[in-house]
Amino acid sequence: MSRRIGCLLAAMLAAQALVVMPAHADDEVCRIDLGRGWPPATENHGSAAETLFAGGLTPTLSLTRLPARSAESGLQLIAGEGEGDWTLRYVEADERIQVWTGGRRELRVQQQPDVASVPMPAALARRVVTDWQRVLDGQVPKDRAAEFHDGEVLLFVVDGVRVSGLQPACGPIVQMMEQATLMIEATDDGDEKRIKRWRKLEESLDQLEQSLAGATG
User: Fold this and answer.
1) CA–CA gap between residue 82 and residue 80 (Å, rounded)
2) Most exposed among 54, 130, 155, 164, judged by the fewest C-beta atoms under 10 Å?
3) Could you give phi then psi for residue 76, rounded to 5 degrees?
4) Where are the alpha helices (H) located in 23-142, listed in sequence order?
5) Cβ distance 29 to 21 under 8 Å?
6) What tens digit of pLDDT does each residue of 14-35 get?
7) Hey, which residues does 120 pair with through a beta bridge?
8) Which UniProt keywords apply (predicted)?
């Protein structure tokens, strides 16, 4: 099993574990540890990962994972020309980007990351961008700054807006993470299986939109 697939399965298991949490969890359990901008002491590491993973492209949406010890990874949506397909990319560092040697930090950006890239229907990609932006706008107030965390940090950038912090265990962002898992799986599928994956993603977006409508209705 490749390291990329191993990380994918780990992400799937993590998402499943979050989903089974009770809907009536208390405020402490359901705290959303996400804020706007860069968490303290994270920007150099995060910028290095995002720049390496983008490879000169400009993602409209990106989700970058900065684990505490293992290799970094990222999911990206790149807009196509006109009404053409978008590009969905899943990128994983060949070796951990940020390492400490003798008390000094090193950013290993002179490496070739592992990239899986597939076309994605433009309408579906735009739905992901719109829905994720709506969720982040609703869950993370504009005046809440990102805080420092010792563990794995997630970096969301959606249409230029940055939100960073810990993976939530409740709320609509859990559905976003499930959708991220579906998109990562799609980068490893054949054409026929990928079409089925897009249907599952559409269904998940439908459910997300319904839950958002119910919350504001």
Assistant:
1) 6
2) 130
3) -140, 145
4) 43-54, 122-139
5) yes
6) 544 543 444 444 445 578 999 9
7) 86
8) Signal
